[in-house]
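Quick one, tokens below:
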């Protein structure tokens, strides 16, 4: 009958959207679960493991203040999960779950701004992007922070549509959760504030009050945050770099710049331009599009401004919260292509994402657990020095965690001449030949050489973990 309501026709788009979101979530899970299950914990994860292994909540807070550079909420969740029976390494599945939810939610939310094919590409970018996969399978807060930033965007939109007390309370709660998970979420809150400033006066006033209330818990934590910053855990970040500013978006989704000379600098700049143009298109399209554009661009711009001012806290992983919105901005640009080429462009982007994921995972992670096993197999006992040619900071925490008894090491540079048998861990090319010549016994773990050598040898240029203490 003409003009009749066709429920099946109405349900079809919803079914397609659900299928797309579910498929993207499945992909996200498939690429994160193997790492969560099998990869050894690296230095930062070991620091997290020590936090969530504390006996009580006060111990968690003290350890976060002493050793971490992020707020306490994620560690509290990890501690609760561990106390509920999850193994320390199994707590990684909080990140896996956050990554799967984030990828699916991007498809659902982006569909309101772009066609389903483009929204699916945006979700796949989050599912397969390098920073998202890496942090989505580790014992750290980054993926959870990115998910909360997406929830922040949804809460801000809902509040702007209907600025009731209940919606304001929801917005304040999400701000509190996000900023107590990662400090860089504050930059996303600034983007939300800038968006609310364009709203009618009543929405502006109530929104400002909600954001201020949401930042209250972080203000209480602020003295601890200043103490964390004073520990100088960002010393690896150099001074402001133009290259670093141009490659941020690229390195959110790829492990490295392309090797081909023609693409090495051009590809990251092209992606940056695509994000900016897509953000401009979103801004012109709708009020919600303007919010998503601000969340894609403003946190990165503010982070760069802080870096340029001399505060060395700018690291690509800290900008992960801008990544999902940047993916949607690129999707908005693709959606504006001629209709005949949209499908081709989406297929090409999907192929590039799969290729990028494959290339990013060619390099196997360091098997710290196997290194510890090799040292023990060669006869290491607590108190025996371990000489390191390579990056001692990368090995220090993991060896403490995986060696029997979890000894606490003291570092000595240069490595002293030891009266006891020494054990050497050397990266390929770092005095590998010399260690091989003097080794009594040796074995390799991927690209590292583990050797037992005679006492009394001199190790120029090496670092030693020389004293273990209870």
């Amino acid at each position: 009958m003409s003009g009749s309501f066709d429920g099946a026709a109405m349900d079809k788009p919803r079914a397609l959207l659900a299928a797309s979101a579910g498929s993207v979530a499945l992909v996200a899970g498939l690429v994160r679960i193997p790492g969560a299950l099998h990869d050894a914990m690296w230095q930062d994860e070991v620091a997290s493991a020590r936090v969530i292994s504390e006996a009580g909540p006060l111990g968690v807070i003290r350890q976060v203040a002493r050793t971490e550079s992020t707020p306490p909420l994620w560690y509290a969740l990890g501690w609760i999960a561990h106390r509920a029976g999850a193994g320390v390494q199994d707590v990684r599945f909080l990140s896996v779950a956050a990554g799967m939810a984030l990828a699916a939610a991007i498809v659902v939310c982006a569909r309101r701004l772009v066609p389903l094919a483009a929204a699916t590409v945006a979700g796949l970018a989050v599912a397969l992007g390098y920073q998202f996969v890496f942090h989505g399978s580790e014992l750290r807060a980054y993926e959870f922070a990115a998910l909360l930033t997406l929830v922040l965007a949804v809460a801000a939109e809902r509040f702007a549509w209907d600025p009731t007390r209940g919606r304001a309370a929801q917005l304040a709660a999400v701000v509190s959760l996000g900023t107590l998970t990662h400090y860089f979420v504050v930059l996303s809150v600034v983007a939300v504030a800038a968006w609310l400033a364009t709203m009618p006066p009543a929405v502006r006033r109530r929104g400002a009050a909600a954001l201020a209330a949401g930042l209250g818990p972080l203000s209480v934590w602020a003295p601890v945050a200043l103490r964390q910053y004073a520990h100088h855990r960002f010393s690896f970040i150099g001074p402001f770099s133009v290259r670093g500013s141009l490659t941020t978006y690229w390195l959110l989704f790829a492990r490295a710049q392309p090797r081909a000379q023609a693409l090495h600098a051009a590809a990251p700049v092209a992606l940056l331009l695509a994000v900016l143009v897509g953000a401009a298109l979103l801004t012109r399209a709708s009020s919600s599009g303007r919010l998503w554009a601000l969340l894609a661009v403003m946190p990165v711009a503010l982070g760069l401004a802080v870096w340029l001012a001399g505060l060395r806290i700018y690291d690509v992983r800290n900008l992960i919260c801008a990544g999902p919105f940047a993916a949607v901005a690129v999707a908005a640009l693709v959606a504006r292509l001629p209709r005949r080429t949209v499908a081709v462009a989406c297929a090409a982007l999907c192929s590039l994402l799969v290729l990028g994921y494959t290339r990013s995972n060619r390099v196997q992670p360091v098997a710290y657990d196997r290194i510890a096993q090799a040292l023990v197999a060669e006869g290491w006992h607590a108190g025996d020095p371990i000489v390191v040619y390579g990056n001692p900071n990368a090995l220090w925490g993991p060896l403490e965690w995986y060696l029997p008894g979890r000894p606490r090491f003291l570092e000595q540079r240069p490595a002293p001449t030891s009266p006891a048998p020494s054990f050497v861990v050397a990266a390929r090319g770092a005095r590998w030949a010399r260690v091989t010549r003097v080794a009594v016994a040796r074995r390799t773990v991927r690209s590292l050489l583990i050797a037992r050598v005679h006492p009394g040898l001199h190790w120029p240029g090496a670092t030693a973990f020389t004293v273990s203490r209870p």
